[in-house]
C-alpha cells in the first residue's frame, strides 16, 4: 500500500526533522525510511533533513508497505453511516445506539467496518462509545494521522460533551465529580468509584432542564475512563435512565448521547466542532 500525504505546514518555521518528529509524531523507523528512500518533498523539491520548512510550505510524504503494513478488515454497510464531518485524514460520524464501535472478533461487523465501507478503505478507531450510547465518534482515515489524534486525546485536546437523562434533581446548576474509577471486583463488565486504587476521572456536569422526577444534564469529560459518566452519576445517586448496568430498574434505551465533539485540526490548526442529532435528544429536549 503506497499513499501520499500532502499538507500545508501550519506551524512556525522549523526543520524537516523537527516537523516530522515533534509535530507529526512519525515513528523513528518510519522517519528513517522516509529519509533513505527520499520520500519527503517540500514545495515539490527534494530537501536536506535539516532544511527549514516555513509556515505555508507544502510538505509531501510518501509512505509504502514497509512504513505502515496493510491492515484489512471486513467492510460493512456504507448506508448505515451518518457522516458529520470528513476530510482526507479523518472522519466524525454519528453512532446509533445499540451498535458497537468496533467488533471483538475479526469477522464481527461494527461501526468501524461500516465507516471503512463508507470511506472505501480501512479506518482506525481514535476513541469509542459504549454500545448503548449514541453520538459523535472520531476515526482516522490513515495510520499516519492516528498517533497525532491519539496524542490530542491523551492531552485532553479533544473535547466531548454528552447529554444524559438522569434520575432525581440536582441542588445546584453545575458540579464536578472527581472520584477515581477502578474495576469492579466481581463483575468484569462494570466499573466502580475506587478512591484507593482507581484511575483519575473528572466529569463536569451542568443541568439543562428539570422534569418531574428526572433531570436533563450536559456532561463534559476531562478524562476518558471506561463508563466514566455512568459510574460517576450512579455513584452520586443520579443513575442514567435505561442504564442496564448501573440503574436499579432500567427501562428502554440508555439515555446517554455524545452530542458534541470539538478539537483543533493538527494539520490545519482549524477548529473543528461537530454536533450529532438524535431521535431521543433534540435541541436540548428529551423526546419520550
What key attributes describe this structure?
elongated, 288 residues, 20 strands, ten-stranded mixed sheet, alpha+beta, single chain, four-stranded antiparallel sheet
- Secondary-structure-based class equals alpha+beta
The counted number of beta strands is 20
Radius of gyration: 21 Å
Give the CA-CA distance, first to last residue: 49 Å
N-to-C SSE string, H for helix and E for strand: EEHHEEEEEEHEEHEEEEEEHEEEE
| pLDDT < 50 runs, ≥5 residues | none
- Tell me the number of helical segments per DSSP (H or I, 4 or more residues long): 5
What average pLDDT do the residues reach?
A: 92
**In percent, how helical is the residue content?**
10-25%
Shape, principal axes of CA atoms: elongated
The biggest beta sheet reads: 10 strands, mixed
In a nutshell, what does this entry contain?
The protein has 288 residues and is of the alpha+beta class. The protein has helices at 16-23, 28-36, 111-119, 146-154, 228-235, and strands spanning 3-8, 14-15, 40-42, 45-46, 52-53, 58-63, 83-86, 90-95, 124-125, 134-140, 159-167, 174-177, 181-183, 191-193, 203-210, 214-221, 256-264, 271-275, 281-282, 285-286. The longest helix is centred in the first third of the chain and has 9 residues, at 28-36.
Amino acid at each position: 500500500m503506497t499513499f501520499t500525504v500532502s499538507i500545508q505546514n501550519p506551524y512556525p518555521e522549523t526543520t524537516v526533522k523537527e516537523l516530522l518528529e515533534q509535530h507529526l509524531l512519525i515513528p523513528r523507523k518510519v522517519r528513517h525510511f522516509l529519509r533513505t528512500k527520499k520520500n519527503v518533498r517540500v514545495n515539490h523539491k527534494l530537501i536536506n533533513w535539516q532544511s527549514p520548512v516555513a509556515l505555508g510550505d507544502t510538505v509531501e510524504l510518501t509512505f509504502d508497505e514497509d512504513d505502515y503494513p496493510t491492515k484489512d478488515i471486513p467492510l460493512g454497510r456504507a448506508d448505515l453511516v451518518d457522516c458529520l464531518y470528513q476530510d482526507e485524514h479523518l472522519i466524525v460520524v454519528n453512532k446509533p445506539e445499540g451498535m458497537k464501535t468496533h467488533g471483538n472478533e475479526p469477522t464481527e461487523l461494527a461501526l468501524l467496518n461500516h465507516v471503512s465501507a463508507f470511506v472505501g478503505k480501512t479506518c482506525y478507531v481514535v476513541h469509542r462509545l459504549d454500545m448503548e450510547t449514541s453520538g459523535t465518534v472520531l476515526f482516522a482515515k490513515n495510520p499516519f494521522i492516528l498517533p497525532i489524534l491519539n496524542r490530542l486525546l491523551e492531552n485532553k485536546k479533544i473535547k466531548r460533551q454528552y447529554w444524559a437523562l438522569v434520575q432525581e434533581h440536582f441542588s445546584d446548576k453545575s458540579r464536578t465529580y472527581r472520584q477515581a474509577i477502578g474495576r469492579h471486583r466481581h463483575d468484569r463488565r462494570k466499573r466502580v468509584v475506587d478512591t484507593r486504587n482507581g484511575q483519575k476521572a473528572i466529569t463536569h456536569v451542568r443541568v439543562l432542564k428539570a422534569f418531574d422526577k428526572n433531570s436533563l444534564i450536559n456532561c463534559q469529560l476531562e478524562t476518558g475512563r471506561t463508563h466514566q459518566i455512568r459510574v460517576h452519576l450512579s455513584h452520586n445517586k443520579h443513575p442514567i435512565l435505561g442504564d442496564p448496568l448501573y440503574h436499579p430498574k432500567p427501562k428502554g434505551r440508555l439515555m446517554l448521547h455524545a452530542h458534541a465533539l470539538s478539537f483543533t485540526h493538527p494539520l490545519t490548526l482549524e477548529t473543528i466542532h461537530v454536533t450529532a442529532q438524535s431521535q431521543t435528544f433534540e435541541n436540548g429536549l428529551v423526546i419520550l
